[in-house]
Amino acid sequence: MIDQIQVSRFQPLKRVLAHDVFNEGFNGWMVIMPNFCNEGFEQSPSIVSKDQWPCCMLSTATFRYPGSHGSMSGQYSLKISTRNVCSPYASMPTPGSMGHGIKRISFFQRGKYLQFETWFAYTAEQDTCENGGPLPGLHENSVRSFGFGFDLQERGGKRRFAGVRYLNAVDGKMTQKWQMIWPWAKDDKAWAYDTEGDWCVKGVDPFWNGKRYPDGRHEGFIDVPDGHQELCYNETDCKLNWQYFRLLIDTEKYEYVEMQCQDKVMDLGRHPIYGVEPYARIEGLMNPLAWVETDAPRRAFLYLDSVVISQE
User: Fold this and answer.
1) 3-state class (DSSP) for residue 6
2) Are 276 and 185 a contacting pair, CB within 8 Å?
3) Rg (Cα) of the chain, in Å, rounded?
């Protein structure tokens, strides 16, 4: 009965593959680690350094003034965080300026639709109260972006990244719009910031690859139609508001179907999901993931109360 009540906060498809309530533990979610596969347990050579990414943690969402928030449904949520380092938006992301969480699972049957749902909250660290303005400790524009999606590889087919991000701020300027993963870089070299021979090809790992431009464009994402949305951030960084998110994709045609945040449903127009040549040893991959990026030399936090992955 308790599980039914918990799931009633979601809109799952016919078959629930995972119902992760983080008050009960990690449920298999962890940071995206470097690939330690060279002599001496060294990382694969790449322009991207993953060893500065903070680990996921179970958190009571503790802040200086209120103490512990707890989660939406108990004491603990999954906390994905950044370090207090940042580069200008149009630069390559600084190591540690992003945080990632991933659950490593795979398909157990073919289905037409796949869906990611979560209740989430986000904020920046309230480390200082800056001079000027009516809310000097707000720091809402210190959160650059966060997102949700899947890393997929169809059996006998291509590898695909499907997901959306909320671009909250660009170099301190509030943007507040949704974008979906669609790589439009010229080639693999451009995807890797004009680096020759990097292991990552166009379309893979769009969170940190793909050039960025001062106006908020990103060669890994395109704007969601009618995607502007002002989310609930409250009055200070030590107050959390839990918000609903849902992403539905078609895994027969590999198309985006729709997304929802709070009570706003956005039609994704059956836009195709980009595919690349398959990678070895990951047949049937179906990894849900979430990430957050800071827009200032201040830590940014993304909290997941619970996640439902479902299929039909």
Assistant:
1) helix
2) no
3) 19
